[in-house]
Design brief:
With 208 residues, the protein is α/β, with parallel strands linked by helices. The chain is 31% helix and 21% strand.
Length: 208
């Protein structure tokens, strides 16, 4: 199966490439398929749910590429902030649509710490959530899987691994931050690792 993974996030691309390694899929990303970034991509994540955003991105890239396409939408949900930043996680601190990179990660993390400055540790519970959408063709009904992982928000970053909010997210499963965790350990328990393993089961049934 020739599979387009529709993300331009270097952090997501690294993780998804690892999660799909060794499977009977020829994995490519938009740059591999010579799909240059177009302005309309900045308007794809207008939904109010992860599923809406994931399906919108998958359908857009499936139409452009003509290939089976998978993409995800994910975010951090903090209980003391009534589930924020949620679907706005990637651009919570602003910076314009399409903004990305280490500077945006830093500003998002600073905003999160400021929002929780007066919140005690016991009330800083949070989870990462990931929804993955797969389209075999641009007009197909999407296959959707979802997963989450639990933890809480630290009062200062720990570790330099991962991306996004990982240095602030203390994993209940690993008893360390995702920023401290080795990639393999993170993949084993993370929202994205769990969601993609569920999707892999679906895809493997299709290629048998």
């Amino acid at each position: 199966m020739n599979l387009l993974v529709a993300t331009r996030s270097p952090g997501k691309a690294r993780e998804i490439r690892d999660l799909l390694a060794g499977l009977p899929f020829e994995v490519m990303f938009p740059a591999d398929a010579h799909l240059e970034r177009l302005p309309e991509e900045d308007d794809l994540e207008q939904g109010t749910s992860y599923a809406e955003n994931a399906v919108a991105k998958a359908r857009y890239f499936a139409q452009r590429s003509g290939r089976p396409t998978v993409t995800d939408d994910s975010g951090l949900e903090v209980d003391a902030l009534q589930g924020r930043p949620g679907v706005r996680s990637a651009r919570w601190a602003g910076g314009g649509r399409g903004a990305a990179g280490a500077d945006l990660d830093r500003r998002n993390n600073e905003k999160l710490l400021a929002a929780l400055q007066e919140v005690p540790e016991a009330q800083r519970t949070a989870r990462y959530r990931c929804v993955v959408a797969y389209l075999e063709t641009p007009t197909a009904a999407p296959e959707i899987v979802e997963a989450s992982c639990e933890g809480y928000i630290l009062d200062a970053p720990r570790g330099t691994g991962g991306f996004g909010y990982d240095p602030l997210f203390f994993s209940t499963d690993l008893q360390m931050s995702f920023g401290e965790a080795a990639p393999g350990a993170k993949h084993r328990v993370s929202h994205r690792g769990r969601a993609f393993r569920a999707l892999i089961e679906v895809l493997l049934r299709r290629v048998k």
